[in-house]
Write a structure and sequence with these properties.
By secondary structure, the protein is mainly alpha-helical. The protein is about 55% helix and about 5% strand. It starts with 6 loop residues before the first helix and ends with a helix.
Length: about 375
């Protein structure tokens, strides 16, 4: 499809982009996604003005996007839904602007929506993420040699990512000053150039699931301060320094600079390369957020502890944490729901019931003894009075 620009459409899209960023306060990445989605619809219009929208055009575009699900590089229905919502949001805003309100009909905008059956299938879809267990993560960290700065840094990256569930784009922007060593707390402040989801300031506490992982990160932090002489403003996980070996055409990459990475891409590559070298199945940095939740649940935390972890991950509600992150693949579910494991659950429950009964009986006995003593005292008092 050749790109045909309508100058009015281009101008209103630019204005919408400014509104999303400056007034609505969306993150740059979110603004870019929404505006790009509207731009794709503008291309589909082939020069027609946004005001010309009718029900037939909306349905044709919806079917066009759904058709992309059957191409060589298919997109998912969830992606189609997101792109259509971007266009719906744009038109809902557009209808309030001078010169558009009477020209764009609400019924036409509604035709962008997917059917109830399609939206329900998206809402109930389970996106299973390959999630490593604690033993695999320990095996991975142990496989990285710690005799170079790059090795020590990478051990620290894997350790901190699991113990806090921090997102990669936040991790790459951390400075030394963002870590409180005494209290084991990070400060993620968007106003200090640390990118966070929804631009919120966060203070994740390190969850000490494993002493070895915690020590790997602390050792790296101390190394940067005491050996490298880094200042509080220097990056916590700096770029790799690539140097040409003396008297050779070869290059070495064993030390680090004092510069920040330009994007999370480098960290994603570290994950990919280190996991492959360790001979483990691939998993993403984000999957360690899921791993943290699943490992934490296995420790049988209280409701208060569950809430604390949820807030530590920056979630508004525990429903998000344990509804989205505590999803198991069929193999894990089979293990949990196996006859052997269920018997263990029954045994634990029986023990808890018996233990509770014993405690109840003890309390009843104590109560009876106390009442018996009170009755005796009362009888003795009456006898003494009569005498």
């Amino acid at each position: 499809m050749d790109k045909i620009n309508n100058i009015d459409n281009v101008n209103i899209r630019r204005r919408y982009e400014r509104i999303l960023g400056d007034l609505e306060g969306y993150a740059k990445s979110t603004v870019r996604t929404k505006v790009d989605d509207v731009g794709k619809f503008d291309e589909f219009l082939e020069g027609k003005d946004f005001r010309k929208l009718n029900e037939d055009m909306a349905i044709k575009y919806k079917n066009h996007l759904k058709g992309l699900m059957s191409t060589e590089k298919p997109i998912q229905l969830k992606t189609v839904h997101g792109k259509l919502l971007s266009v719906i949001e744009f038109y809902n805003w557009l209808r309030k602007q001078p010169g558009y309100k009477r020209r764009v009909k609400e019924s036409a905008i509604q035709c962008f929506r997917l059917s109830r059956k399609e939206t329900n299938s998206i809402a109930t879809q389970i996106n299973l993420i390959e999630t490593p267990n604690l033993d695999q993560i320990l095996e991975l960290v142990d496989s990285i040699k710690g005799d170079t700065e790059v090795g020590m840094r990478d051990k620290g990256i894997f350790s901190l990512t699991l113990l806090t569930g921090i997102r990669v784009k936040s991790l790459t922007m951390l400075r030394l000053k963002d870590f409180d060593r005494k209290r084991l707390i990070l400060t993620l402040n968007p106003l200090d150039d640390v990118d966070t989801k929804f631009g919120e300031t966060m203070n994740p506490v390190i969850v000490p699931l494993d002493d070895n992982l915690l020590n790997q990160f602390i050792y790296w932090f101390d190394y940067l301060q005491k050996v490298k002489g880094f200042t509080p403003e220097n990056p916590l996980f700096p770029m790799t320094e690539v140097k040409q070996m003396e008297g050779s055409l070869s290059y070495t990459a064993t030390t680090v600079t004092n510069k920040f990475w330009k994007s999370p891409t480098a960290v994603n590559k570290i994950f990919k390369d280190r996991i492959k070298a360790a001979g483990l199945s691939h998993f993403t940095p984000h999957s360690l957020r899921h791993a943290l939740v699943q490992i934490f649940i296995s420790l049988n935390p209280t409701e208060v502890e569950k809430l604390a972890l949820s807030q530590n991950l920056g979630h508004k509600s525990p429903v998000t944490t344990y509804g989205q992150y505590a999803k198991y693949d069929v193999n894990k579910r089979s293990e949990i729901l196996s006859k052997e494991n269920l018997q263990n659950i029954i045994n634990r429950s029986s023990w808890n019931i018996n233990d509770a009964l014993e405690q109840k009986i003890d309390l009843m006995n104590m109560d009876l003894n106390q009442k018996y003593e009170e009755i005796l005292k009362h009888l003795l008092k009456n006898i003494n009075t009569q005498q």
